[in-house]
Design goal:
By secondary structure, this protein is mainly α. It has a single domain, classed as ABC transporter involved in vitamin B12 uptake, BtuC (Orthogonal Bundle). Helix content is about 75%, strand content about 0%. It contains 14 helices and 4 strands. It has a two-stranded antiparallel sheet. A two-stranded antiparallel ribbon has the order 2-3. The longest helix is centred in the first third of the chain and has 36 residues. The protein is globular. It starts with a helix and ends with a helix. The relative contact order is 0.19.
Amino acid sequence: MAATRFLGLAGTRLLRLLTSQGALLLLLSLALFGSFRYQTFLTPLNLMNIMRQNSMLAIVALGMTVVILSGGIDLSVGAFVALGGVIAAMLAPAGSLVAIIGGIASTALLGMVNGLLVSRALLQPFVVTLFTASAARGLALSLTEEKSIAVSSAASGLVWLGRGFIGPVPVPVLIVALLYFAAWFMLHRSLLGLHIFAVGDNEEASRLMGVNPDRVKLVAYTISGLLSGLAGVVLAGRLGAGQPVAAFGWETDAIAATVMGGTFLGGGQGSVLPTLIGVLLLGMIYNLLNLEGTITPWWQLVLRGGFLLLVVIFQQRVVKTAG
């Protein structure tokens, strides 16, 4: 009996360790595999390219993490990225500042709409964000007539956000570093962060403690919308154009990165720094698949969905074992 109990406790601790640190262990394992498989994999140029290419997804995943921690989900982030980039490109002739603010403000407003519909209208987050995703994507396609909008030369600052460097480090990578530090500080060193964790863990209990769950959800979805717009602006600067079909499927990658980092889909447990590890893990996986060259992008979409399903199943197993 004692041996069985000991094995059960050991198994539970192992599952919790894999949930909290599994992404980091897998990241290191893949890096080791890639270094033996490809001579160019661990070169500074390739590693910097992985970080640069996934910077926009990292920004989106950060907003997704905040929403999931509050007990919600946001399926509109990919469409918001496209819309934010399109609006920034359309406003680019008026200058970089107008373009950047316009792109971010438009999706922050839509994120606020998400938050109001979820908190005040009491609609399910899945339904609300699915609707706004469709509306935002349709709006982006309508505004551009299904064509790319080139970024005007008057918006050199916008292009710098996507392509510039400060020293040897790409600007998007520095933006990600600053945002993740700010989000970590907000979640773990501020009253708002405490309220986000409380609402995600138990909304009714948080209400009894004096927390306003409606306000917390509104803030969480607004943050997600704002960050999606920022990612769209950076992406438009990097591509030199606003693409209405950009960021297709990014909501899946953002959820996968968040969950792989140990944030529970039920909310109330997780952090942002492990999400960044999850983003880098996804980027490394796709980089290895591209270097291998035997799996088409369409099959990579299939693998992406299957990988997310496996992570969610594993997470549910941890919850049941811990319970």
